[in-house]
Specification:
The complex is a heterodimer of chains A (115) and B (110). Chain A is built from no helices and eleven strands. Chain A is mainly β and 115 residues long. Helix content of chain B is 0%, strand content 62%. Chain B contains no helices and eleven strands. In chain B, strands 2, 4, 5, 9, 10 and 11 form a six-stranded mixed beta sheet that branches. In chain B, strands 1-3-8-7-6 form a five-stranded antiparallel beta sheet, with no helix packed on it. Classes of the chains: A mainly beta (115), B mainly beta (110). Chains A and B meet through strand 5, strand 9 and strand 10 of A and strand 4, strand 5, strand 9 and strand 10 of B.
């Protein structure tokens, strides 16, 4: 069990550029989640996949954000035309089953700074 | 939606002291988890505890679901316990969305 891994760990970009983050979940976990965390706040849910299907998206996920999990394994989160308000830690997590009966495991996060 | 509130918002301890962190939730929850976020930002599971009491070394947690709160006890604190502690819950039919509390920032001084 190698844990949830995320790449890159840090990204600095200029406003208007596109960025993409990658997440590799724990291998036997079929559920994958993206959260966003801003300074001084708890993580906020963005979206969730069961296998390759994106089953829920938060209203926080504007049309500049897109997430995919093409083969039900790794996932990518792309932000187009970044804005300074997008600066945050983007956290990926995975679980074996539903969260009402099981645990959620987080990666180390990808910190985005938009200048 | 459900509100998850934590207290105290921050806490400073001397090494070796004990502490209790509290999590209150506004509605019945299906699941409750406690996490520790280390200074590098990673969230580490401490407990999955929808009800009852669990212990893991110097840490223990109790959830009283009928009274809508959970407690995290840290005994004989160490500097490595520093960081932010979050509780998070699922509720109702939203079985795949953890709602996080506001966090407690703990600083353990040597």
């Amino acid at each position: 069990d190698t844990g949830v891994s995320q790449d890159p760990r840090h990204k600095i970009t200029k406003r208007g550029q596109n960025v993409t983050f990658r997440c590799d979940p724990i291998s036997e976990h079929n559920r994958l989640y993206w959260y966003r965390q801003t300074l001084g706040q708890g993580p906020e849910f963005l979206t969730y996949f069961q296998n390759e299907a994106q089953l829920e998206k938060s209203r926080l996920l504007s049309d500049r954000f897109s997430a995919e999990r093409p083969k039900g394994s790794f996932s990518t989160l792309e932000i187009q035309r970044t804005e300074q308000g997008d600066s945050a830690m983007y956290l990926c997590a995975s679980s074996r089953g539903q969260l009402n009966t099981g645990e959620l495991f987080f990666g180390e996060g990808s910190r985005l700074t938009v200048l | 939606g459900i509100q998850v509130e934590q207290s105290p918002p921050d806490l400073i301890l001397q090494e070796g002291a004990n502490s209790t962190l509290r999590c209150n939730f506004s509605d019945s929850v299906n699941n409750l988890q406690w996490f520790h976020q280390n200074p590098w930002g990673q969230l580490i599971n401490l407990f999955y505890i929808p009800s009852g009491t669990k212990q893991n070394g110097r840490l223990s947690a109790t959830t009283v679901a009928t009274e809508r709160y959970s407690l995290l006890y840290i005994s004989s604190s160490q500097t490595t316990d520093s960081g932010v502690y979050f509780c998070a819950a699922t509720y109702g039919g939203a079985t795949n969305k953890l709602i996080f509390g506001t966090g407690t920032l703990l600083a353990v001084q040597p």
